[in-house]
Amino acid sequence: MKIVLASKSTARQAMLRNAGVQFTAISARVDEAQAKADLLPQKLTSIELARALAEAKANSIPNDEPGSMIIGCDQTLEMDDGTILDKPANLSALAEQLTLLSGRVHRLHSAVICCENGKPVWDACETVVLRMRPLSEMFIGNYVASSDNSLLGCVGGYQIEGQGAQLFEKIEGSYFAILGLPLLPLLGFLRRRGLLMT
Q1: Of 82, 110, 117, 189, whose CB has the highest number of CB atoms within 10 Å?
Q2: Can you give the pLDDT at residue 63?
């Protein structure tokens, strides 16, 4: 059975590749902003929203091979007051978002879903609790100035595997989930389905 990752995320691809999973990566054909707007009337929780977006991404991949296992992933960021943040639109928005998150706790919900023939067969979501340290205006300015536009593709505006580690004083949860994939639950599912060696 062919495994297809509905994502061009280099972090997600690296996690699967390093874990020994053979897969094909195809960019999901989903307009995230429109998908969120369409889901808004359903009043989903941030976890439900992450799962729904992951499923939309998985189902956006044409199933050229019957029986292909399509993996969709998405993340939502929920602040301590329940506000859900989107990816920053530009570097100015990134600075504003970091100012908002500074000194506060937020939750990152990372969802993954596997679909076969257009139907979900398994899903999981892992939540990571992150406490951002108080950030000075000068630090935020330097951080944003030294970053590239790749941070704009991250829901929190940070990459924990790089300089983003400097933003935090405490993290509770899976490192893989922060990078955008509940890797260990996914590997367990793929083993149970006979797609990985047990």
Answers
A1: 110
A2: 66
